Amino acid sequence: xxxxxxxxxxxxxxxxxxxxxxxxxxxxxxxxxxxxxxxxxxxxxxxxxxxxxxxxxxxxxxxxxxxxxxxxxxxxxxxxxxxxxxxxxxxxxxxxxxxxxxxxxxxxxxxxxxxxxxxxxxxxxxxxxxxxxxxxxxxxxxxxxxxxxxxxxxxxxxxxxxxxxxxxxxxxxxxxxxxxxxxxxxxxxxxxxxxxxxxxxxxxxxxxxxxxxxxxxxxxxxxxxxxxxxxxxxxxxxxxxxxxxxxxxxxxxxxxxxxxxxxxxxxxxxxxxxxxxxxxxxxxxxxxxxxxxxxxxxxxxxxxxxxxxxxxxxxxxxxxxxxxxxxxxxxx
Length: 332
Hints:
Elements lengths: L19 H6 L13 E5 L2 E4 H15 L4 H32 L5 H15 L3 H10 L4 H21 L8 H10 L1 H4 L4 E10 L6 H19 L4 H8 L15 E2 L5 H9 L9 E2 L3 E11 L10 H26 L3 E3 L2
Antiparallel strand pairs: 1-2, 1-7, 3-4, 3-6, 5-6
Helix pairs in contact: 2-3, 3-6, 4-6, 7-12
């Protein structure tokens, strides 16, 4: 049986490695297929090659393949440009970090890698196997972790949020974001699961992904989600119900499923995403609104959210100033 819930059926912990989002967040996704490399941007005399943005865009490109030809080209250009913008920003931060003299120690890198292992319940061999399934070496992963730590240390030292919000500011923020603080909100998702065996070889994983992409494409073209679930889903607990998982409150679903469900409108179908179980396609069948707690009960959470918003604004201003004083040439 493929468990997708915690609490009612089986408590499960979030697993990050192997998911496209994990590798994307670390800038680690490798190119698929041969790529003729070329310069797509120059940032203060440092080049960015097509292969750099190609590896970041891989998860999006594979989803785009299900769209029609014309839409596919337009979406691909849009994705590549957004990815390029992100790479430029990180290049700018790395340049400033190097100028500042900030260093990353071997101990910091090892601690970060160990944290990844602990979160994912894997040893060194398991981590290397997961990386290999994405076409990556451990050394590549280690270098990317070093860059990530360098950027984080510099940003932490360079960006300061001054001033503390008063009661009035916090209450106004609370009123503008009430949906964020509702409790007991519940979702009724349906999903199609394509199981990936624990010891699956890279080629088998690619075959399963291709199959799941084909099913997603049929759904996007109008095929009935419930019928597709009954035919293809490998979750025996929901397959005969057309993938319907029933209602779940926050915290009861596998975190990755809950995250996707929370982003969907009723009747909307997600893109393809991966968890430790395999690949999923999710549809939100229904949603019930929760109750809003008094301001005083969530005040500290509101304060943290307010600070996060202020920090994000300061970060964007910092990036804007970096771009203004830099020489950036786009060739994409």
